[in-house]
């Protein structure tokens, strides 16, 4: 099974490499027919988080118009709302949690749906916040939390994430388990929409949460919590939000899909072109139409400047990234497969999936390739895998995914 997965991945990489060797042919194909977008108006859902930035910038800077479409951004209240509207066709595409899209494909995040990942929108930029009351009791890191949890009745402490198969759930589970805390036996976890995290911690509904910015910075500003870990300290340069849609929509609107990716690639490149562009992005996102918050909650971490709220300040070597010469946006197959390994680890999948096949049908590497050629200055990796070392020293490189999924000491019973 492992050898078959590896072979499929290498074949996919070879195809991507071949496309890069024939840019003239690709452009000639477009010229021979019509590459005009099938839809001129594209409804894109988003949750008010810092990492929706490419959607905002593509819309407000006119990158969508450059490629013949008009993005209609739609602000949503929860990830469940994004899921429901995307599946129902009320949204054409969305800023969405990586693991949520894969969960939809597999029927563990809702009714099974054929989904598509057009590109990765960002790396890094999430965090785990613990309540200030824990700091007052001497809990300032994972080791201290392990000791404190051991003093409580199992399940008496509540932690929140944003969606059961989402990225924040996976970061929270991984972090807790790396410290010897079973996220299903030792503590209780609940789902809370991102904009409601701070309020729920303020009234004592949980002692910790994992969410995207600016809500971790907001908890520090409101003096109700501190940053115990950044998501990039769990997995440096981890994939986070993606541009998700239905596979049927891509099949019916291939030119529109490519134009949408082009617009967001241009926006991502613009954000990272200078520090001033990042600052302007923070000012834009603070507006009512987007995050409706104070600019000060956004700017610091947008620039990679961190303060954990209990005396530590640093410039993070892995700040939130949107472009990095296109490397952020490429939909690596190994990134999607990692979420499958965690679904297996935590008992969400009862049998081993075909990791490679699932990633290949969801991650639209060919559309990314076409868009990258149109925008320019980017090339696809071959094969579509990358290697990463996580906080506990485990190395993930997309090979032997089932072996990787079963290697963890703490896992869900029956997984």
TrEMBL record:
Name of the protein: CmpA/NrtA family ABC transporter substrate-binding protein
Family to which this protein belongs: Belongs to the CmpA/NrtA family.
Keywords: Cell inner membrane, Cell membrane, Membrane, Signal, Transport
InterPro entries: NrtA/CpmA_ABC-bd_dom, TAT_signal
Signal peptide span: 1-31
UniProt-annotated location(s): Endomembrane system
Main location class: membrane
């Amino acid at each position: 099974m492992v050898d078959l997965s590896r072979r499929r991945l290498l074949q996919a990489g070879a195809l991507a490499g071949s496309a890069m060797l024939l840019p003239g042919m690709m452009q000639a194909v477009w010229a021979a027919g019509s590459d005009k977008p099938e839809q001129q108006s594209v409804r894109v859902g988003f949750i008010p988080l810092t990492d929706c930035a490419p959607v905002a910038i593509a819309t407000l800077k006119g990158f969508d118009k450059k490629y013949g479409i008009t993005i209609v951004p739609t602000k949503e209240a929860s990830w469940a709302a994004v899921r429901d509207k995307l599946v129902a066709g009320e949204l054409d595409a969305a800023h969405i949690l990586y693991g949520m899209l894969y969960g939809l494909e597999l029927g563990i995040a809702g009714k099974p749906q054929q989904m598509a990942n057009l590109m990765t929108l960002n790396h890094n930029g999430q965090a785990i916040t613990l309540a200030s009351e824990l700091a007052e009791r001497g809990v300032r890191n994972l080791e201290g939390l392990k000791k404190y949890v051991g003093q409580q009745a199992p399940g008496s402490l509540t932690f929140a994430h944003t969606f059961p198969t989402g990225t924040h759930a996976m970061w929270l589970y991984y972090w807790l388990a790396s410290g010897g805390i079973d996220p299903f036996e030792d503590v209780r976890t609940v789902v809370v929409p991102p904009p409601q995290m701070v309020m729920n911690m303020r009234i004592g509904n949980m002692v910790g949460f994992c969410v995207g910015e600016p809500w971790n910075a907001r908890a520090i500003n409101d003096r109700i919590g501190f940053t115990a870990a950044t998501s990039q300290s769990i997995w440096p340069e981890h994939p986070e939000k993606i541009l998700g849609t239905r596979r049927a929509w891509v099949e019916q609107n291939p030119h529109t899909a490519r134009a949408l990716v082009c617009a967001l690639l241009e926006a991502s490149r613009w954000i990272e072109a200078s520090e001033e562009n990042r600052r302007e992005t923070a000012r834009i996102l603070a507006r009512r139409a987007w995050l409706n918050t104070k600019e000060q909650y956004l700017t610091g971490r947008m620039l990679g400047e961190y303060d954990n709220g209990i005396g530590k300040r640093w410039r993070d070597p892995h700040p939130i990234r949107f472009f990095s010469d296109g490397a952020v946006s490429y939909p690596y197959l190994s990134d999607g497969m990692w979420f499958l390994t965690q679904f297996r680890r935590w008992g969400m999948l009862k049998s081993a999936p075909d990791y490679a096949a699932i990633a290949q049908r969801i991650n639209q590497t060919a559309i990314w390739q076409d868009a990258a050629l149109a925008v320019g200055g980017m090339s696809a990796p071959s094969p579509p895998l990358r290697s990463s070392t996580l906080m506990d020293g485990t190395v993930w490189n997309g090979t032997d995914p089932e072996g990787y999924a079963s290697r963890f000491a703490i896992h869900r019973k029956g997984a």
